[in-house]
Amino acid sequence: MQTSEAVSTNTNAKGNKKKSFQFLYFIGPHLILFFVFVLLPIVYGIYSSFTQWNLISDQTWVGLNNYKTILLDQDSTFYFQFRNGLKNTLLFVLYTIPFQILFPLLIATVMQHKGLKFKGLFQAIFYVPGLVSASAGALIWLLIFNPRLGPMNNLVNSDIVWTAQQPYAWIVIFVMSMWGAIGGNLIIYRSAMAGVSEDLYEAAEIDGAGAIRKFISITLPSIRFPLFYTFVMSTAGAFNVYVQPLMATNGGPNQSTTVLMMYIRNLAFGSGESVAGMASAMAVLLGLVILAVSALQFYVMTKRSKG
Amino acid sequence: MKKNNVSKYLAYAFLILLALVWLFPALFGLFTSFKSQGDIMEVGFRMFPANWIVTNYLKLLQNTSSAPIITWFFNSLFVSTTHALLVVVVVSLAAFGYTRVNFKGRDALFYGVLAISMFPSAVNIIPSYKIVDSLGWVNTYLAVIIPGLGGVGNVFLVRQFMQNIPAEYDESARMDGASDFVIYKNIILPLVKPVLIVAGMFSFVGSWNDFLWPTIVLSDVKKMTITAGLQLLQDLYGNYVMIGQLMSAAVIAMIPTVLLFVFAQKYFIDSLNLNVGIK
Amino acid sequence: MKNAHRKFLSAATLAGITLLAGCGNANTITFWNPLTGDDGAYMDALVAEYNETDPEFPVESVITADMYTKIYTVMNSGKDIPDLTLIHADRVPQFADLDMLEPVEGLMATNTDLSADNYLEVAWNAGNYEGTQYTVPLDIHGNAMYYNTDLLDKYDVNTFLDDDVVTIEEILSLDGKLDEGQYAINNALIEWVTLANVVNAGGDISDEAGNPTINTDAMRSVVEQLKSVADAGLMSPYGEDGYAMFQAGDVLFSTDGTWTSTAHGSVEGLNFGVTNIYSVTPDKFTNRSSAHLFSLLNNEDRTDEKEQGIADFLSWMRENSIDWAGAGQIVASKEVFESEEYQQYPQSFFTSSDVEKEASYIFDYKYYSYVESALGTVLSDMIYGNITIDEGLDQAQKTVEDLIAENAS
Fold it and tell me: Which of residues 215-274 of B touch A (CB under 8 A)?
């Protein structure tokens, strides 16, 4: 299905070729909005990363100094913050993305069962948590994990102070995030799976394929485009995580849950004088990491589909 | 058949168990909104309020000066609905352009745009504000409706679904002399209706839940959107002190999105069936 | 097509609303403040009361949760800068250095009641930087220690309150005497408690040259003492919400803020009083405070007439801000805090004598925010033993030094 003609030419009914810029009408509106509201701010941010700036005075060009400090100056606080933040962000991504992809996939597959009723209701139950404001959601979970007031410790019969020790602190953040995160992917997978023709499954069954075989050979390849989408977007989103660790543990214990975005925001908009240039540099580096990971994901997924 | 029934019951069991786990915190939050501060702080877990009170809600609804929740509610409704509708239009056009129309460098352009959009920025508030300001949109609804339309995520999503539609569908129409726009309108759009509804819903929710940008760009408390407004319930130092009140605010803020979802769900589950039956 | 119709309608509505939104009264004083929560309602009531006096320049109060982000954004664009803002004391040196503030000396000249004599000394001075007065105070608000009267009776330690200062020694004397699940103190606002006690111990967070001094002996000694309280099991545990535990009746002394008295008051069955923050020595006590200060962001568009309008508003505030006490704040206007009516509020305790007034301490170090933030990152970990005190203080010291260096030159 990959048509990739070099020029935009359409042969109309009369057989005449006309060169058209039709495509501009389609991608134009979005491109303009993208350029103004997405590209320009990002370019500004990249520029800021090469400056020393406190948000009020003029920006002073410092070239690669910020980057040198962050990446090379081992004594510097910023070196520490970048590494610690990036490490914690990567941990968050590693802990949550597999779950965020596989679990909704599992639920969607189960929900494919023909005889099942109330599918809409189930889907709603899984999606609605994503609509709760992040702070309210965090508070609910903090109450649940509260050693005194919450049901969790009654349930597992212990008196762990969840947010004060690892690995429990990560567990709290994981639960808090996943509660709201799987609904969206679930909807996309169900939407995609619904488009897969019944005939394919029937043919496979005649060949004696079991449930797992059907899933791997039919379902997965048929939804590979939306699957790719959720994989890339969920990962990018996870790299940007900020609210959950902030509200759950405030980055503790011992800064073991302080993710990179928290350091960045604090440097740029903390209560002291802003160190916006340094913050911008960290953000650019984070962006490069996200791009590298996305490129890797793209490579893996397109290679698979060709093979 | 017996095999079918067993797997069906297993499926039900799995889903019901999960649903209960997922539902529990939401219900807990809901019940907490009916509790007094003392009730919440009392030691030991209790699901239901000792005394059901509606003061949390009343207090919120009565505050029409510094926290006019009803006004905020309708502001958000207007802003998010308009935004979602515009998203559907802009995104479907763009996704069509990136999949159905052939031009030089098409895929490279799309992936380039996608890649750029993945860059986080520490200070993007500042240039975004400057741009919006120079357009004269500060403290107007345009400032909260338009900027988000530049997002690439939904274009990506719809593009992926459009790619799933075989090219044969267009080709027969093209041979009859249909222009790109006609193909877009009559063939592709109906086929991607479910995912457009999903994209519209996601962007509605995204707009609804945005709390930082409206705070920055709107100054009039009467114009504020609801999730941004909820920030105003923090106490002086950013702590949420009155938990019951926060829960009731969260419940109120959630109502339209839940209703929207229920409504949209009905609509696109029907469309899902349409999708499958295409010949 | 349905979509097109809808789009047109939305656009039309948008245009209509935009037109409406564009209009505003040129004579309105836009007043930005960060007063979220219940406090906002009090301020709005006061502003409404002022507007009822039919002033030439009515005030429009704009409450924002992220006010400082908003201020930075707006100052960058140079337009729509508010006429009047309410800022915190620790922003004054920063803002003044960056030329963001217009001194209030113009207002003081026309409205002579806006002067040091009519306000709480520490509140007035918080707005004075390098000899220039930049702000007129609304209030101070600070660390306050609430005690549970029932628990004090239960453990028979009412004597702790005798000299108005509870010492760490007295707290440690409760070792082994408390019931399971009950604690002597909590860790609410523990950074403020620590900083205040550094002052009690004769130290400071900066030296004369303006360098931060965090890993000092005084600081070390304070943190060690706090750690000993935690080690004895007398401090509410790490990760648990000490504030909630106080409200649940399990903590004797809660070191939170003057502004939480209303929240505590709403808990049925909680009997409490307020006193000074506990100290490392019986000879001195300090309550770390901040202040809400009226300030004028630099704005060329603000006319002289409007500035007069602002001055009049501030004079009115000086006389009428008794209602602000309802929010739990220590009102800065002398006329108010010396009035009969004010004495009914719990926070009147903090202006009840000269000694009390002097105990409210506002740090004026230019980089105070960095210090508080860096200390806050490591403090709990030091107290509860996740890292050693030396590690923590060294890290905090380095962090602040690096941040200062970043913005130097």
Answer: 227, 230, 240, 243, 246-247, 249-250, 253-254, 257-258, 261-262, 265-266, 268-269, 272-273
Sequence-ordered list of residues with C-beta below 8 angstroms from that of B102, at least 6 positions apart, any chain: A3, A4, A5, A7, A8, A23
- Cβ–Cβ contact C74 with B under 8 A: yes
For residues C135 and C179, membership in a common domain is answered with no
Q: Do A255 and C377 touch (CB under 8 A)?
A: yes
Could you tell me if A269 lies within 8 Å of chain C, comparing CB atoms?
A: yes
Asked if residue C400 and residue C351 are part of one domain, the reply reads: no
pLDDT, tens digit, 9 for 90 and up, residues C142-173: 999 999 999 999 999 999 988 889 999 999 99
In this complex, which of B43, B227, B257 lies closest to A149 when CB atoms are compared? B43
- For chain B, give the percent of residues with pLDDT over 90: 22
Instruction: Supply the pLDDT for residue A190.
Output: 87
CATH code of the domain containing A222:
1.10.3720.10
Q: What is the ipTM of this complex?
A: 0.85
The end-to-end CA distance of chain B, in Å, is 30
Residues C280 and C174 in one domain: yes
Whichever domain contains C345, its CATH number is 3.40.190.10
> Where are chain B's structural domains?
62-276
Contact (CB<8Å) C240/A164: yes
Q: Please check whether residues C220 and C323 belong to one and the same domain.
A: no
C267: contact with B, CB 8 A cutoff: yes
Q: Name the residue among B41, B65, B81 with its Cβ closest to that of C247.
A: B41
Q: How many structural domains is chain C composed of?
A: 2
Number of domains in chain A: 1
Residue A266: give the domain boundaries. Answer: 78-306
Summarised one tens digit per residue, pLDDT across range B85-132 is: 999 999 999 999 998 888 888 999 999 999 999 888 888 888 999 899
For an interface test with B, the pick among C46, C73, C406 (most B C-beta atoms closer than 10 Å) comes out as C73
| pLDDT tens-digit readout, A253-270 | 899 999 999 999 999 988
Residue C392 and residue C266 share a domain: yes
| Claim to verify: residue C332 and residue C253 sit in the same structural domain | no
Interface test with B, best of C6, C8, C14, C179 (most B CBs within 10 A): C14
**pLDDT at B25 exceeding the cut of 70:** yes
Comparing alpha-carbon positions, the chain A residue that sits nearest to C69 is: A269
Domain identity same for C240 and C375: yes
Q: Are residues C105 and C66 in the same domain?
A: yes
- The domain containing residue C190 runs over which residues? 145-288+366-408
**Residue that finishes a domain, picked among C361, C384, C399:** C361
B63 and chain C in contact, CB less than 8 A: yes
Which CATH architecture is the domain B62-276 placed in?
Orthogonal Bundle (1.10)
Average of pLDDT values for A277-285? Answer: 94
Chain C residues within an 8 Å CB radius of B221: 61-63
Chain B residues with CB inside 8 Å of A193's CB? none
Q: pTM to 2 decimals?
A: 0.88
| Residue A68 belongs to a domain | no
Q: How far apart are CA C150 and CA C142, in angstroms?
A: 24
Using CB atoms, pick whichever of C69, C398, C407 lies closest to residue A269: C69
The pLDDT tens digits for A101-139 are: 999 999 998 888 777 778 888 888 898 888 887 777 888
